[in-house]
What we know:
Layout: E1 6-8, H1 13-20, E2 27-30, H2 36-42, E3 49-52, E4 62-65, E5 68-72, H3 77-82, H4 84-89, H5 91-98, H6 103-108, H7 111-117, H8 125-130, E6 134-139, E7 142-147, H9 148-151, E8 152-154, E9 157-158, E10 165-172, E11 179-186, E12 194-204, E13 210-218, H10 228-234, H11 241-259, H12 265-284
Parallel strand pairs: 1-3, 2-3
Antiparallel strand pairs: 4-5, 5-10, 6-7, 6-10, 8-9, 11-12, 12-13
The protein binds flavin-adenine dinucleotide.
The site of flavin-adenine dinucleotide has 29 residues, from β2, α2, α6, α7 and β10.
Amino acid sequence: MMKEMDYIRPNSIEEAVQILSDPGRRGKLLAGGTDLLVQKRVDPPDYDCFVDISRLSEIQQIRVSDGVFYLGAGVTHAVIAQDPLILKYVSFLAQACLSVGSPQIRNTGTLGGNVANAAACADSLPALVCLDAVAHLRSKRGERQMLVTELVKGPHETALETDELITHFTFLQPPPGVKTHFIKIGRRNAQSISRLSIAAMGRKDKNGNVDFIRICPGAATPRTMRFTEVETYLMGKQACEELYVDAGQRMAARMVEITGVRWSTEYKEVALKAITERVLREVLG
Ligand SMILES: Cc1cc2nc3c(=O)[nH]c(=O)nc-3n(C[C@H](O)[C@H](O)[C@H](O)COP(=O)(O)OP(=O)(O)OC[C@H]3O[C@@H](n4cnc5c(N)ncnc54)[C@H](O)[C@@H]3O)c2cc1C
């Protein structure tokens, strides 16, 4: 049986953080509810009031200004997947959001909820981490900013305080000519949770040498992070099949270095090699 809950729908960010900081109640942000309402049935909630931010227009904007992307935390996966600016400059984020769940989940599930829920398999994380995206947090105590890769500390663990709300994410528009790509491996094609994923950004110079590269696997390590050792290895090298194969091996080796050998390693090593090669072909080929 679900326990009864209070429900409040604030009209502004200001009002939302005011409610979250109220010592008289234990408020919990509710955006699309696609994670929260499922969890509520499984785990006894440690809150007694939903603070519904799903209709806060303040956190539902996407814009680019002076080369900086501003992406509201309340934007749904469906909106991101179709947004012209996202598709033009950072299409891997649209690919990632399009791979989330089903149309129903994408229509209600939000980017902020995906990040705050911090599942290891959260599909938006690899692209956001590749972009060095910054999360902007608001509470009654003020504002602070944090890289997404630092905000999400591990599976279902974040640096968010209970009275904090993610208002938006910012990241720099990629330099001209940089291509982006996202690949997800799931158990089936639709409504599939990531077994493993990868996001990459890349460009070669006029001589065919790698002159921009960022690469981040998803559901591979407890914290979603760029594999900067592999990026450094790739920089300046001639983009070719041998390089992609070599990079795949290095990605897999780095993953095992971080996680140790687990029951899933036998599968993930091979799979990560394969998707690294594929993603590099897409962004550098
Ligand atoms: C059937 C199904 C399939 C799914 N498939 C996928 C999939 O393929 N890939 C994937 O990545 N996910 C998947 N999910 C998980 C979920 O849909 C996503 O994580 C979604 O983005 C969560 O967003 P939400 O708005 O629904 O979050 P909610 O459920 O509303 O909230 C999730 C958590 O985030 C907190 N929160 C929400 N917004 C904010 C904010 N602005 N600031 C601070 N905290 C906040 C909430 O308090 C809660 O703790 C699936 C879920 C279901 C039920």
